[in-house]
Amino acid sequence: xxxxxxxxxxxxxxxxxxxxxxxxxxxxxxxxxxxxxxxxxxxxxxxxxxxxxxxxxxxxxxxxxxxxxxxxxxxxxxxxxxxxxxxxxxxxxxxxxxxxxxxxxxxxxxxxxxxxxxxxxxxxxxxxxxxxxxxxxxxxxxxxxxxxxxxxxxxxxxxxxxxxxxxxxxxxxxxxxxxxxxxxxxxxxxxxxxxxxxxxxxxxxxxxxxxxxxxxx
Length: 217
Fold this sequence. Notes:
three-stranded mixed β-sheet
């Protein structure tokens, strides 16, 4: 083998070695890039999953809060409804109580007026009887007893707010007086009550019996 051939062979071997080294370096670089790419993709996937979990958790939180708020609104609505119902029932009961009290008072007034109207003729008879007693007998025990009963009866009527209507000497008033006749009078002017034929009474400022009177024409 000549020296020229040896040099060519040597150059060829060096070229092959160089190519092999370059190929190995390229392979190694590709492996490094592939590893880096795989790491990057893995990191990106992990970040994506983390973001997805965060979004899911966030959505679940708001969803849970929304359900809780809806439940609270329904509960408040129920409470408001019950409060309104209680208020209406209380108002109805108050109206019932007032109406019952008014009806009770009206029944009492009706009953009291009925009793008083029945007692007035008894008072009239006492007054007529005492008016006919002779002067010499007015001090007798019997007449004194009758006077005591009469005064007690009048006292009890006064406690019930029963009062006699003023008539003689007063101007005729159809709200209190019932004119039964006309009489001439030198003492009173025209339109004035000159005589009282039957005493009238009021019960709590309401006429329970008009006075029967004689009026000067």
